[in-house]
UniProtKB/TrEMBL annotation:
This protein's record includes keyword Glycoprotein: yes
One Gene Ontology MF term: serine-type endopeptidase inhibitor activity
Gene3D superfamilies in alphabetical order: von Willebrand factor, type A domain
Protein name: Inter-alpha-trypsin inhibitor heavy chain H3-like
Residues of the signal peptide: 1-20
Keyword Transmembrane among record annotations: no
VWFA domain boundaries: 275-456
């Protein structure tokens, strides 16, 4: 009996081994090297990730790896090197890109496709998936490039670079270089997995500095990577912070050929008193961590109100409850009373009447218009879900709120968690002079809410507008030139195209209302210094980047189907022209994109009519006439290969079909032999 069990165990192991191609476990695609390089010039960052991958298997392998980009970044290039040939990716509409990639997989050649995914990314990031098909027993080098316009918050520009190879990499390098014409006055950084702020070189990194530049170099040794994680190595982000000199109250206009970008961060203006109302969702879905963190954040935010601010708190579920019938001055006594209200009343219950909450909030702030003077006017709106009570159609809510508001107050929306309708909140805020952010349902949610308020805490100017001579610029090319408010520590950016016939120096008229003095000045353009940091035509790329973002906003805001198509086509045209991966496009690269004659000569593709040397199809007929189909497959399971059967789609009976509609059982022949042998063996012992 013991011998029988032993032999059965041996054959069980055998069948597991036989179920793998050539009786071995299929190796994963290995990253041989990864270099990440960031170059920043005029707030525009270009990040280049160069990865060399090796496939040791005797068939092509597909692997998928994800990477996270900042929410406002666009992928701008992807190049694949196979042998002595390079193939640069092309940006196509998603459907066409998918077709090219699938055809390349069928031919067993190296290919890659980049798509934006809807998975839950890290904060203020978006996820892209690179699907890479590496030909048998070969290596491929992939270069991924993306552009990001850095925004200024709390007096710093910030760049986050995901650094997660998910395996130990022998040759792993990060380098960054920043060049700013105005001069860099502050710089610090943090490394993956560390919260320690560094300003200069240490045992792991090398930093070089001059008046206009900062350079950083980081090459972690294998031992250091293993110390972080024995199998996955380093995982985290490199984060760079810096600021420039802001000496000119009218900002700086950088011009390169016929394109310009105007950066405006006025300093020296006193902080304005503000009228602010907090509209908080306390419906049943807010219960638990969300309502607790909201309560904690509000108690802290109330302490940060400035003397001279007027404020109010409005809570809504299926009913609306306000702290007072009018905004109150932020005296110590009133702040303490407001804290008591928050402590007693901010508890989850009921359904969600977003419309009534917003309309009542606007009517409450209307009362403050009688106060006079130049004041910031702010609505902070927080919700975690979708309207379920009162008016529930989001289009109707937006129309009603915008009509009632008449651009008097800026609405800044916070979406709590991932069940919230973020497109609705973004559109609502864009239409009313604000912006929307997501609050992540985690233990530091209260700190996230406080940080959001910090961005709005100190308005210094209202009704900021920038005008350029009509004969100097193409008016249709301009990005937004009107801003309801300017907040201390931020920056306003305008981009446009100069008319071909205009030969003079470009100038701008900048205006804004302050509490003591107004902003009213003229500013002339400055020629861009390219140096050796950035590629040429950076102003044109930056303009296209900003224009695409504006068009995407306009598309989200319009409810007219004809106008949506017009805006969509404009966005697609710019995306294709400047090779940007946007929500409308994908980027695909394949050896099949090479001219076929060149591909044959270099052994990348087989001659027409000749079966591929690897990955060829072999057909075997059973007694019943059914077809056993064996082929080397493309795998897509991160980071390990996908099973063969996933390449085929089942019919209504669950039987997988080939391209001719016949039933196919995709089974490896060694597995069939082992199964037959094992069955015979077990049959013998069962006698």
């Amino acid at each position: 009996m013991t011998m029988r069990l032993f032999l059965i165990s041996v054959f069980t192991v055998l069948i597991v081994l036989c179920s793998c191609d050539d009786a071995v476990v299929v190796p994963r695609v290995k990253i041989a090297s990864m270099h990440v390089e960031s170059k920043i010039h005029a707030r525009m960052a270009r990040v280049l990730v160069t990865t060399q991958m090796k496939n040791f298997a005797n068939h092509s392998l597909e692997t998928q790896f994800t990477f996270q980009l900042p929410d406002m970044a666009f992928i701008s290039n992807f190049t694949m090197y196979v042998g002595d040939k390079s193939i640069t990716a092309i940006v196509k509409e998603k459907k066409e890109a998918n077709k090219i990639y699938e055809e390349s997989k069928q031919q067993g050649v190296s290919a890659a496709k980049i798509d934006r995914q809807d998975d839950k990314p890290n904060r203020e990031m978006k996820i892209f998936t690179v699907s890479v098909n590496v030909a048998a027993e070969s290596k491929a080098i992939f270069k991924l490039q993306y552009h990001e316009l850095l925004s200024r918050k709390f007096g710093y520009y910030k760049q986050r670079i995901s650094f997660q190879p998910r395996q130990i990499v022998q040759d792993l390098v990060f380098r960054a270089k920043i060049f700013e014409q105005e001069g860099i006055n502050r710089f610090h950084y943090t490394m993956p997995g560390s919260n320690i702020t560094e300003t200069s070189s240490n045992e792991l990194t090398t930093v070089k500095a001059s008046d206009n530049t900062r350079e950083l170099y980081f090459k972690p040794a294998v031992d250091y990577q293993k110390a972080r994680d024995i199998s996955k190595g380093i995982s985290g982000e490199v984060v760079l912070y810096y600021d420039v000199e802001h000496n000119n109250v009218g900002g700086i206009i950088l011009q390169e050929n016929e394109y310009f970008v105007h950066y405006l961060a006025p300093s020296g203006f006193p902080v304005l008193h503000k009228n602010i109302i907090f509209i908080i969702d306390i419906s049943g879905s807010m219960q638990g961590l969300k309502i607790e963190q909201t309560r904690l954040a509000m108690l802290s935010i109330l302490d940060q109100l400035h003397p001279g601010d007027y404020f109010n708190i409005l809570l809504f579920d299926n009913n609306v409850k306000e702290w007072f019938s009018e905004p109150m001055l932020a005296t110590l006594n009133n702040v303490n009373l407001a804290k008591m209200f928050v402590h007693d009343k901010v508890h989850a219950r009921g359904s969600t009447d977003i419309n009534s909450g917003l309309l009542r909030g606007i009517s409450l702030l209307d009362i403050t218009k009688s106060l006079g003077g130049t004041r910031g006017n702010i609505i902070v709106f927080l919700t975690d879900g979708r309207p379920t009570s009162g008016i529930t159609n989001t289009k109707s809510i937006r129309q009603g709120v915008t009509t009632a508001n008449k651009h008097k107050f800026s609405i800044f929306s916070l979406g709590f968690g991932f069940d919230v309708d973020m497109p609705f909140l973004k559109a609502l805020s864009w239409e009313n002079g604000g912006f929307a952010r997501r609050v992540y349902e985690e233990s530091d949610a209260a700190r996230q809410l406080e940080s959001f308020y910090k961005e709005l805490e100190n308005p210094t100017l209202i009704d900021v507008k920038i005008d350029y001579p009509n004969n100097a610029v193409e008016l249709s090319s301009l990005t937004s030139t009107r801003f309801p408010q300017y907040f201390q520590g931020s920056e306003l950016i305008i981009a446009g195209k100069i008319n071909d016939h205009f030969q003079s120096q470009l100038d701008a008229h900048v205006q804004g209302q302050g509490s003591v003095t107004n902003l009213d000045t003229n500013i002339n353009s400055t020629a861009l210094k390219v140096g050796n940091v950035m590629e040429s035509s950076i102003m044109e790329k930056l303009w296209a980047y900003m224009k695409i973002n504006d068009l995407l906003k306009e598309t989200a805001l319009t409810d007219d189907d004809v106008m949506k198509r017009v805006l969509r086509n404009k966005t697609l045209e710019l995306s294709l022209k400047y090779n940007f991966v946007t929500p409308l496009t994908s980027m695909v690269v394949s050896e099949t994109l090479l001219p076929r004659k060149i591909a044959y000569e270099h052994g990348i593709l087989n001659d027409p009519g000749v079966a591929p040397s690897r990955g060829r199809k072999i057909y075997y007929k059973s007694k019943a006439g059914r077809v056993f189909h064996s082929q080397s497959s493309n795998f897509a399971h991160q980071p390990y290969p996908r099973s063969d059967t996933q390449a085929l789609s089942p019919d209504q009976h669950g039987v997988q079909k080939d391209s001719n509609g016949g039933s196919i059982l995709q089974i490896r022949l060694p597995t069939v032999y082992c199964v037959i042998l094992l069955l015979q063996f077990l049959s013998y012992f069962s006698r």
